[in-house]
Design goal:
heterodimer; A: about 290 residues; mainly beta; Immunoglobulin-like; 10-stranded mixed β-sheet; globular; B: 5-stranded mixed β-sheet; 4 helices; about 35% strand; DUF4198 (chain A); signal (chain A); DUF4198 domain-containing protein (chain A); DUF2271 (chain B); DUF2271 domain-containing protein (chain B)
Chain lengths: ~290, ~170
């Protein structure tokens, strides 16, 4: 019961800051993913079904279903599209996307939040919420203002007919993938290149991890780690065809979690507000891509 | 004189293609398979530039164009190499390219040098690629090298599962 409460409180807190799903990938092995049944489709009546979960093993639903209310779709022309037939089970959510237009669709969740502390009339104030609310609720020029900005993004890509780039335009917020090799054109045994940007600028020296699915049938996880150059680009060759989980994280300055409303015992009186020790940021990027058979 | 012309053509010199419109004679054997659930294969017959593996043209695509709800085009992607290199750029059905799936047995095909993908094909070395994908079955691509530009000998290759013998000759 207590556990359930904690979970609920957490969900509420998460929902409150507009992090619709992607539960923070804290220091656990839990990995969020959306796996499309196909990344390459043909024909006018194309539909794709997608599984979404937070699991230990890739890509087996063994921990928790991913919530679908924050899943967004960008169509090949850049317009917002929608998921259909969403259903959430104990371990896995599933939904469909209809590819009514030719080109590449991006299916994703993205969240940005700000934690802040400042002093007002000698009293420590704290804020946690969306960047928009931060701008509204935290006075401009607040004394001793410290902020920790967090962003997380979880994506997958599906192409009907010819791959297109419109849906993959970076937003300039958080950590994002910019195609050099198109993410639905990654071929096993052939070199592929992705570029990463942080707030729209090249993410240099970024460690990117690629882990193949099907872990249950392998003795070793088989993860591949690559580091980006000054231009934020990583080049890798995936050895086998299959679905891969791509992940990268950036942290700087203070990124302490917790504070009022977070992590405290449920029902306990909120602890007195304490100032943040400094400014900081954290950004995470996750994607599922397919390495196609040559 | 004749000799120097053929040398030129092999050097890839711009020579009016109509002056030497040859035909490409191809045979494709669809093997008879003893399986529980048999579907005729989808087949793409295309020309590949051997140097960089890009497609130089599509000659034929056998698929179920009349399938209800466009489920025929849904499986075009399964001829994966052709799809990636040529198919996804095209729209289907395609005139002179689309055709119905074919039953097991040898199939004789003649592609006119005056039409379609061959019309503007520059003389030189190519691979003819026959790529087959079968519903609830496998996938296979067979490559047969041939020289375009003048009549040549019969070239042949054989698939091991989804395709039988493939022969190519320029006549």
């Amino acid at each position: 019961m207590r556990k359930a409460m904690t979970f609920k409180t957490r969900l509420l807190a998460v929902a409150a800051v507009g992090v619709a799903l992607a539960l923070p990938m804290s220091a656990s092995a839990h990995r969020g993913w959306m796996v499309p049944a196909f990344t390459t489709l043909s024909g006018d009546s194309a539909w794709v079904t997608v599984d979404a979960a937070i699991s230990n093993e890739l890509f087996y639903p063994d921990h928790r279903a991913m919530r679908t209310d924050g899943v967004k779709v960008i169509a090949p022309d850049g317009a917002a599209d929608k998921i259909q037939n969403a259903a959430t089970g104990q371990y896995r959510s599933t939904f469909d996307v209809q590819l009514t237009k030719p080109g590449t669709y991006k299916i994703f969740t993205a969240s940005n939040s700000v934690m802040a502390s400042w002093t007002e009339n000698g009293e420590v104030k704290r804020f946690r919420g969306s960047p928009e609310d931060f701008a509204k609720q935290v006075p401009a020029g607040a004394a001793d203002l410290k902020t920790i900005k967090s962003s997380s993004r979880n994506e997958t890509f599906v192409t009907r007919d010819k791959p297109t780039l419109e849906a993959l335009k970076p937003t300039g917020q958080g950590l994002e993938l910019v195609p050099v090799t198109h993410p639905t054109d990654v071929i096993a045994t052939e070199a592929a290149t992705f570029k990463f940007v942080i707030d729209g600028k090249p993410a240099a020296g970024l460690e990117v991890t690629l882990i193949p699915g099907g872990a249950r049938w392998r003795a070793a996880p088989g993860e591949i780690k690559v580091k980006s150059g000054p231009d934020g680009a990583v080049t890798f060759t995936l050895p086998e065809a299959g679905m891969y989980w791509v992940n990268a994280n950036v942290r700087s300055g203070e990124t302490v979690r917790g504070g009022p409303g977070m992590g405290g015992a449920p029902g306990a009186a909120p602890a007195p507000a304490t100032p943040l020790a400094g400014d900081g940021m954290s950004a995470s990027y996750t994607a599922v891509i397919e390495a196609q058979r040559p | 004189m004749k000799r120097s012309i053929s040398l030129l053509t092999f050097a890839g010199a711009a020579v009016g293609s109509s002056a030497m419109a040859a035909d490409l004679n191809v045979t494709v054997e669809v093997p008879k398979l003893n399986v529980a659930e048999y579907h005729k294969p989808y087949v793409a017959i295309w020309i590949e530039n051997p140097a960089d593996s890009t497609a130089a043209g599509t000659l034929a695509v056998w698929y179920d164009a009349k399938n209800r709800e466009d489920n025929g085009a849904k499986w075009l992607k399964d001829m994966r190499q052709w799809w990636r290199k040529a198919g996804r750029e095209m729209s289907f059905p395609a005139d002179g390219v689309s055709g119905a799936t074919r039953a097991p047995g040898p199939h004789k095909l003649v592609f006119s040098g005056a039409k379609g993908a061959l019309k503007n094909l520059k003389p030189g070395q190519y691979n003819l690629v026959v790529e087959a994908a079968r519903e609830v079955g496998g996938h296979e691509a067979v490559r047969v090298p041939f020289a375009w530009g003048k009549p040549g000998k019969l070239a042949t290759a054989k698939g091991s599962a989804e395709l039988g013998a493939v022969t190519v000759s320029v006549k």
